[in-house]
Amino acid sequence: MRKKVYMTAGYNTISLGTGRKEFNPKKPRPGIEDYLKEAGQGVLKQIKGGADSVDESIMGNFMAARFNKQANLPGFFPMIDKGLEYKPATSVEGACGSGGLSLMGGIRSILGETADVVLSMGVEVQNTVKAIYGADILAGAGWYKERKKGHAYFFPGQFSDRAGAYYEKYDRDRARKGMAQWYANAIENARLDPTAQEFHNTHPDPYAQSLKMEPNGKIFVDHLNFMDCSKVSDGSSGIIIASEEGLKRIGVDKKDAVEVIAFAQTIRNITEQPADRTELTAIKKAIEKALANASITVEQVGTIELHDCFSIAGILTIEALGLAKPGEGCDYVAAGKTKRDGEMPINTTGGLVGWGHPTGATGVHQAVTIWQQLTGNAGDSQIEMKADRPYGMTINMGGDDVTVSCIIYKQG
Q1: Is residue 387 in some structural domain?
Q2: Which residues span the domain enclosing 31?
Q3: Do the Cβ atoms of 394 and 403 come closer than 8 Å?
Q4: Which residues on neighbouring strands pair with residue 167, listed in sequence order?
Q5: What is the CATH number of the domain that holds 15?
Q6: Whole-structure pTM over 0.85, yes or no?
Q7: Which tens digits make up the pLDDT trace of 142-190?
Q8: Residue 161 located in a structural domain
Q9: Whole-angstrom Cα distance, residue 343 to residue 321?
Q10: Following DSSP, what letter does each residue of 275-326 receive, concatenated?
Q11: What is residue 132's predicted lDDT score, i.e. its pLDDT?
């Protein structure tokens, strides 16, 4: 890193969708402008000078042009605050990894010395269409020419194939136990965060609930049940990315910020199917590059926010991280090692399965969660950060292991 880069002043809206008491598909709900205004103003209220202190803004979003019939998203920044008008603003798209690209853009602006304070945001409002139509929209995260060959629920089908390959190569029973524990962890953690989509979940035994529900290809996909999947979500997240000079400008002490010590971004060919469905190669390479750039090992990381769009993706990422050998990620999870008080606390506010997955916002939400945890501002979700493991990591994935960003943080 040629200069120091920090993140601070994070804010998340509620992740709204099925599971939240406020959600009613038959009644009017907030639009994309409502989520952006809430999250953007929530960030700006935390910094000295508000919008006047911001040099540029960047927006992560996947499919507003189809879900909301709205494009040209940078134009919404002045709606958030008049102080952002006539300042540079950009939108970026990398499917479910769009939020991570928003962070990447902000980091690079600080490193390129074109800005000292960047407002990074992500947003998605997806509950505007029925799930089956939404599946077609989300299929754009893969190679759309393959759409007709895929499952009606395209991306659940993609990761169902990964799960099926994992069952065949290793052991289905062990895998299902690990996947059920992944769901149970997600619900346990989401219940501690009032903004989480599963915050209101009161099921007495989420582990048994998931384990007992056998995947059924006649009603969904062959190798995943509904609890193996993240839900359709509406929401927005924002965070400030700043240089040392920028922190001073906005009146934030370093102890109230996290420092970005390394990052990596990788891309896999979208027109090719994975060579091995039991490996996430783009994620693995991004992790390896980020750790090498930070000159640390994964054992020094104290908490991770990773992209569990499906429970099998979480288990495969555990293996990509090197926390478990191939075929043993499911055992690592089943043993409780990824629980909030486990060996490696993961997705402490529920991750995509528990907190929610407003696709364009997810990468930014991950950064907000790490900022909260490393600065001791996570409320009921707070975990104990150990002195010998002071780092946090985010892993955001777009598509089926296609667009990946990985960031490593420490308390400022």
Answers
A1: no
A2: 5-130+232-255
A3: no
A4: none
A5: 3.40.47.10
A6: yes
A7: 999 988 888 888 899 999 999 999 999 999 999 999 999 999 999 999 9
A8: no
A9: 14
A10: S-TT--HHHHHHHHHHHHHHT--GGGEEEEE---SBHHHHHHHHHHTTSS-T
A11: 83
